[in-house]
Amino acid sequence: IVSAPQITGSVSGVSGQDLRAGITGPFTINPAGTKAVTVMFDIRFPDGLYAEERYTDYEGGYSTRRVSHTVTVRFDCRRIDANGNPTSDWSMLFSKSYSGSGGSMWGRPQALNYTESANVAPDRYQVRAYCTDGNQISKNIVNKVQLVAMRCTYQMPKLSGRYQVRGLCTGGGQEDTYLMNEVVWGGIKAYM
């Protein structure tokens, strides 16, 4: 029996989802026969995060300035069986409030990028994401938030029975060449 390796895989169908549009997902984060242990999220505010506020300037005219704005993003998870059927209710996995500074009105707003992670009890899961602030889409609020990527670290099952191990040489003979083992079991590949 070969011990169960941990590998990290990307979750498909996630890139560029706008979390202001309501619940995004659910996304199945790990293949059948594996147990997720950590979920990682890449969140992006492509245009920054701020609100534009009108005010009376010192000459009595109206001007606009950028002020800080806050958005809360939440991820929920539920357990699923090998066929993708739910075996539990949704529960909160991760929630965080993000605040952006207003910055200068004349400078180009900077994109804000965050990578977050949450540990889960070993099992198979679906994850969904959304903003808890509702659909705050307004010409005066810049708060577009995207789920750019989601990854999952999961445990492969203990390998018993028939499996294939082959050595892979990478680097084409260069100094950084190294050997790793590819384990193929039930259509799932792992590299050790």
What is the average of the pLDDT values? Answer: 76
What's the helical proportion of residues? under 10%
Shape: elongated
**Poorly predicted spans:** 162-181
Q: What order do the helices and strands follow?
A: EEEEEEEEEEEEEE
For the secondary structure, the number of strands is 14
Measured on Cα atoms, how large is the radius of gyration?
22 Å
Structural class: mainly beta
Strand content: over 45%
Biggest sheet details: 6 strands, antiparallel
Distance between the termini: 15 Å
Number of helices: 0
Explain what you see.
- With 192 residues, the protein is mostly beta strands.
- The model is unreliable at 162-181 (pLDDT under 50).
- The two termini are 15 Å apart.
- 0% of the residues lie in helices and 56% in strands.
- Strand 13 (178-185) and strand 14 form a beta hairpin.
- Strands 3, 5, 6, 7, 9 and 10 form a six-stranded antiparallel beta sheet that branches. Strands 1, 2, 4, 8 and 11 form a five-stranded antiparallel beta sheet that branches. Strands 12-13-14 form a three-stranded antiparallel beta sheet, with no helix packed on it.
- The chain is elongated, with a radius of gyration of 22 Å.
